[in-house]
Amino acid sequence: MSIVTVQLGQCGNQIGHEVFNTICGDVHGTHGLCSKKENESYHDACKERFFSEDESEVPVARAVLVDMEPKVISQTLSTAARSGSWKYNDRSHFCQKQGSGNNWANGYSVHGPRHKEVIMNLVQKEAEKCDRLGGFFTIMSMAGGTGSGLGAFVTQCLRDTFPSSFILNHVIWPYGTGEVIVQNYNSVLTLSHLYQSSDALLVHENDVIHKICAQRMNIKQISFRDVNQVIAHQLGSVFQPTYTAGGGSHYSRNPLGDLMESLVPHPEFKMLGLRNIPQMPENSLAYSTFHWPGLIKHLRQMLIANAKMEEGIDWQVRLPHLSSSVPSTHSINKPLHFNTSIANLVVLRGKDVHSIDIGSFQDPSLYACWLNPQEAFNAWKTPRAFNKYEKSTSLVSNSQFLLKPLDNVVGKAWNMFASKAYVHQYTKFGIEEEDFLDSFTALEQVISSYTNL
């Protein structure tokens, strides 16, 4: 099944380009450990998911690019075309001459309805090119105006137009130190609306990725492209083809459906986080050796201690014994003893992948007490290495990982709202105070649900 990617705003378009670049580079990379048949099967499954082909036989990304300003889209289209290995359809993009001014309401209430027909026509055309449509993958930021406001509106339109298709929103969490004065308003409005329309939200935090660039990739002057390439590597590590069950003989044909089935057992819990190890500079790979037991041990402790990267894992955090009395609720203002999960998916890629012991991820203590660990945990595998890493593993987790950042964003936005700061900038575009209150209520419920796991 094919995935149509919808790239929204500057952030969404720049990340989307890096995702397709990473995927294409991985497909055409050298993988001597796999048979020719294995590599061909992998290539075909990847192409079906992410690319179509035109007369030139150059892979064409299954994507729609949307921004209210033309500059980034123009750069994205030309950079992809110059690569020679893939390109975008030069008729699958939409832009205007005027941005959204970092105002969520402008993107959602003005640009969205005004340009709905042309944007959805582009999406419809891209969907019709798929022999089998598996769903939509939207990429957007929460902090600005176009990506967040227009992105929330487009997601709602996707749900209305394709009610039976899966929708996964990839959302970039803004830097905590602040990019935009109203980013907390934009974040609250975005998350509350996406929670109604999408099947799941896959979140990357800018602060975390920045740390990975500095501490794991050893980058001295970190650019947006460096950050986006790390995000793209992590996304590719999950979305590239795998066998979803016990060794299988065919690569999964329904990536979004399999992801939702594995990770979203209840509509109240839609927040997904992603961790990937190892991550290091390419010039260090030749001098590094990785062993599966060590990788699995580190990944499991990252989950337990809610560590977002290999560096600085707190090994003192321990799971409780089931016989001990563990409070059913945690105060949001106190550090959580451990990170309770709803569901976990481990993706394993590389040499000797079918001999790995991953039973430690089925420990009942990892999960909410009302879940069966055998059903809450899934593993996907392929012997084919990913992106030059001989062995690598990723964890997609539906857990309490985002509780603290979410509570902080809601708290900051509420403090601003209580003093009516900048509210007039939203009301002039049709977002009333009631809309803010509804959004706060919706996210307080999300916080409460995850807190009480």
Descriptive account of the structure:
This protein has 453 residues and is α/β, with parallel strands linked by helices. It has three domains: 2-268, 3-Layer(aba) Sandwich (Rossmann fold), CATH 3.40.50.1440; 282-315 and 339-400, 2-Layer Sandwich (60s Ribosomal Protein L30, Chain: A), CATH 3.30.1330; 404-452, no CATH class. The chain contains 14 helices and twelve strands. Strand 6, helix 5 (146-161) and strand 7 (166-173) form a beta-alpha-beta unit. Helix 1 packs across helix 8. It is globular, with a radius of gyration of 21 Å.
Gist?
It is found in: Cell projection, Cilium; Cytoplasm, Cytoskeleton, Microtubule organizing center, Centrosome, Centriole; Nucleus. The chain is of the alpha/beta class and 453 residues long.
- Give the percentage of residues in beta strands: 15-25%
User: Under CATH, the topology of the largest domain is which?
Assistant: Rossmann fold
Uncertain stretches of 5 or more adjacent residues? 323-336
**CATH C-level of the largest domain:** Alpha Beta
Classified in CATH, the superfamily of the largest domain is Tubulin/FtsZ, GTPase domain
Chain-averaged pLDDT = 90
Shape: globular
The major sheet is characterized as: 10 strands, mixed
Termini Cα gap: 34 Å
What is the strand tally?
A: 12
Structural class: alpha/beta
Report the CATH architecture of the largest domain.
3-Layer(aba) Sandwich
Number of helices: 14
Order of secondary-structure elements:
EHHEEEHEHEHEHEHHHEHEHEEHHH
Lateral strand order in the biggest sheet: 5-4-1-6-7-8-9-12-10-11
Query: In total, how many domains does the architecture comprise?
Result: 3
Radius of gyration: 21 Å
* Percent of residues in helices: 40-55%
